[in-house]
Amino acid sequence: MSLGKLDIWSTPKLAPLYPRFPIQYRNVQILTSIYETSPEAIADHIAPPLTSLNNYVMIHNYFMPDVEGMGVVEETNVMVGVSVKNLKGDEFIGGFSTNLLISSEVGLAQGREVHGQPKKLGSTKLEISSESIVGKVFRGESLVAQIHSSFKSEESSIEQLSKYFPFAQNINHKVIRNIDGSQGINQITARTLSAVQVKGIWSGNCTVELYPNTEAPFHLLPVVRSVRSFYWEADFALVPGVIIRDFIKEESNE
């Protein structure tokens, strides 16, 4: 089938880098850890029209053994809670990604080019023993973060996790330059996972340790107090999202 210029999903034309939506994720293991940071640190990571919800940070460590078009994927997503409104005044509340490390070049490109997520290459290791789980995050050979948590200590729920902030809606600042260096895309975007099936979720005490790294500066959201970890297992699908603000179009309409 011949593809027209508007039908190309991803380059190269005859071998797209990442699949079309929806993308299915099966048997995912997730360690979500919450800690408190300072309001000044969060303010350094966001700018208007985003506003902070509170001083909590979530670190999601993922082991994804079965991702369509990607295979086995490891990922870590660092989020803070934010609120943002579109020009109509509709409010969007969710988790804003300040840093993302992923082991898949396919997932890296898809995240940046489509959703505007700040993904870089990295690896995440979840080590489970009889009574504890350890999440280690690496940028290359350098340890960026390490989380220790009790394993399946107390049965919990997504509602208990979401009380820190409603993280299910991922909000990003999508910036892509034109070839001449001018602004090509400058948007606030949002997407929510679909067909989420949580197979189990447990919570426990945790400690969060961050290590300075210029390429993956998790440490710029310093730990004031470790709060709680949630270990959960789920299936879900990655689907299209929405454009909340398009700053280039807004400027051209002024």
Description of the molecule:
- With 254 residues, the chain is mainly beta.
- It contains four helices and 15 strands.
- The protein has helices spanning 39-45, 105-115, 158-162, 247-252, and strands spanning 23-36, 51-67, 71-85, 91-102, 119-121, 123-128, 132-139, 142-150, 154-155, 169-177, 183-192, 194-204, 206-210, 225-238, 242-246.
- Strands 1, 2, 3, 4, 5, 9, 10, 11, 12, 14 and 15 form an eleven-stranded mixed beta sheet that branches.
- A hairpin with a 3-residue loop joins strand 6 (123-128) and strand 7.
- It is globular and about 55 Å long.
- The chain starts with 22 loop residues before the first strand and ends with a helix.
Highlighted features:
mainly beta, 11% helix, eleven-stranded mixed beta sheet, 4 helices, 254 residues, four-stranded antiparallel beta sheet
Largest sheet: 11 strands, mixed
- Which of globular, elongated, flat, extended, rod-shaped describes the shape? globular
Number of helices: 4
Radius of gyration: 18 Å
Q: Helix amount, in percent? A: 10-25%
H and E order: EHEEEHEEEEEHEEEEEEH
Percentage of residues in DSSP E strands: over 45%
Mean of pLDDT: 96
- Please tally the β strands and state the result: 15
Strand-pairing-aware structural class: mainly beta
The residue ranges in which pLDDT falls below 50 over 5 or more consecutive positions are: none
Q: What is the terminal separation in angstroms?
A: 42 Å
